Write a sequence for this structure.
């Protein structure tokens, strides 16, 4: 029986969260994961360079056009790469496309996402990127953080895997807060959650195999 | 000019948050505060004993009957004790009565409350006591905490003074989580916030006095 779980990482931009995963793998912190594919919807995403440097197959799947047909076509191509690569777990690491309910339901508790707030605060529709930190500062919270969760059909609604709190500081701007939440929370809990999910899959598989032998 | 701000503390029950304030005062951590009065709506509240032991005048103001007239009568009596005691800042420390918009508006940014969650999570109408922790566990958050905020006419809606995060642990019940949030967050940030609010009032007063002399 294989002793790792294949992982695909979906990206759109700079790929700092991808880098955190690559670094954790290089440091031996992801023994249950094998990084199989990086898929970007943007050909210019620097994340693709990071994947190449780390020796991970990198793919570009641009989304062409709008509407349901374009979405179906896009998701079919992403899905094919994921399946062919042998990935069982997919990480959304700064992936700026919405995945349809149809796609998400095919992979229950197999797609994970990182959200830059302590869900249920500042999450759901309309809360993405810098807007999350603008909302937190405008509300006046003194503690925010990040959440890694499974993706289901409700935006930011899937089961929470890990969360980490980060203090807001006097004089923070959305930009300084975004950076601190990345450094102190996202880059730590995303690789740790990925390892946990893959280790849990392997443990369940070993358990099933033992039961089969009985 | 006086160099402390008088504080009244409203309670209904055991008074562990009151005790945290009393202990902080005894430890010299509240140099800007003078504890003037403890007011309970329940004659049997153990918080009254804690006040007596600490030498703080303790008052019972039962709320008799329901409806607006009873509320007005109750609040007038509370208000009179607060004013006569010389308190300028009022702390709601496990006070289980709702204060009317009318009462609250008389003391803008002078009434502070502690809520056992990281606002805006698990707050507002219906979220009090153990229910807050039941909601957090049922949602599946991995981080919760406490918030000290000013009281305004919106439930848990006033400006946030301090927040502190607390990790949820595997196997937590609402009761174990409630206790940990008290110990690790509420008992720390409530006295610290009270001192900050009173110190800020004194600093503003000194500033005004200096400007008057110019």
């Amino acid at each position: 029986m294989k002793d790792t779980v294949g992982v695909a990482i979906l990206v759109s931009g700079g790929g700092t969260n991808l880098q955190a995963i690559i670094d954790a793998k290089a440091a031996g912190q992801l023994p249950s994961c094998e990084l199989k594919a990086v898929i970007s919807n943007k050909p210019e995403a620097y994340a693709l360079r990071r994947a190449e440097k780390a020796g991970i197959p990198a793919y570009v799947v641009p989304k062409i056009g709008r509407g349901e047909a374009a979405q179906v076509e896009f998701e079919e191509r992403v899905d094919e790469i994921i399946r062919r690569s042998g990935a069982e777990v997919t990480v959304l690491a700064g992936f700026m496309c919405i995945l349809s309910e149809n796609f998400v339901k095919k992979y229950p508790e197999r797609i994970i996402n990182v959200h830059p707030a302590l869900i249920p605060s500042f999450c759901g529709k309309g809360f993405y990127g810098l807007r999350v930190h603008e909302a937190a500062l405008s509300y006046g919270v003194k503690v925010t953080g990040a959440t890694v969760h499974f993706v289901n059909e409700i935006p930011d609604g899937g089961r929470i895997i890990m969360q980490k709190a980060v203090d807001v500081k006097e004089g923070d701007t959305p930009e300084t807060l975004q950076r601190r939440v990345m450094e102190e929370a996202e880059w730590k809990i995303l690789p740790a959650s990925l390892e946990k999910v893959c280790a849990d899959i392997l443990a369940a598989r070993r358990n099933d195999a033992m039961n089969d032998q009985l």
Summary: The first strand of chain B starts at residue 5 and ends at 11.
